[in-house]
Amino acid sequence: MIFDDVTAVWNQFNLTERTIEHLWMFSIALTISVILGIILGIILYQHKKYAEPALNGLNALETFPDMALLVLLIPVAGIGEVPTIIACIIYSLLPVTRNTYTGLVSVRPEILEAGTAIGLTEADIVRNIRIPVSLPMIAGGIRIAIVFTMGIVTLGGIIGAGGLGAPLQTGIVLLLPDVIIVTGLWVGILAVIFDGCAGMIEKRLTVRYGEW
């Protein structure tokens, strides 16, 4: 009986297609966030005097209500996927940037001394020591970004972004509890799956580099 109800909701609201849309936006937003976050973290490491104001600025953006941000982006980016992806990037940039920067500056001094002793330049130390040792912390930042991105992509259904947020919004507006439950649970399952995968990667990196 429950399986039939879930199947009916799934087929009626095209949740397979909606899932593909959802994961498409999620993948784009997360990929851009990770790339920009790591690059920005490395830049802040190289220019430490800008690190505190930059991270404070990102933290201020993080405290801005996500729904309000989506609404404010509409005059600039229109409605649909673009403002949703931009909002995801804004919210996900902080954890990746912060963890990248923190990882780079937190390498144990004895490891750096060993690198200097064997003749490594500063660039070599960053590439061969600081970045590898920072990977577990960077993975932790990406794990947080995954949760943020999944949530905001879902919220993007309110401004016509499609994805799983669209049927969820329909269920809320029309008071359809079956749609709300099925779609909400599926979004939750996806978030748990991606978070679990990121957690496994983080543990492997910690085992590999955590004792450096």
Written account of the structure:
By secondary structure, the protein is an all-alpha fold. It has a single domain (2-209), classed as MetI-like (MetI-like fold, Orthogonal Bundle). It has helices spanning 2-12, 15-46, 51-62, 66-77, 81-105, 109-117, 122-155, 165-173, 177-209. It starts with a helix and ends with a helix. The model has no long low-confidence stretch (mean pLDDT 90).
Give a brief rundown of this model.
The chain has 212 residues and is mainly alpha-helical. It has helices spanning 2-12, 15-46, 51-62, 66-77, 81-105, 109-117, 122-155, 165-173, 177-209. Helix 2 packs parallel to helix 5 (81-105).
- Count of discrete domains: 1
**Structural class of the helix and strand makeup?**
mainly alpha
Q: Using DSSP, what is the number of strands?
A: 0
Low-confidence stretches: none
Please tell me what the overall shape is: elongated
Main location: membrane
Protein name: ABC transporter permease
Domain ABC transmembrane type-1: 19-198
Keywords: Membrane, Transmembrane, Transmembrane helix, Transport
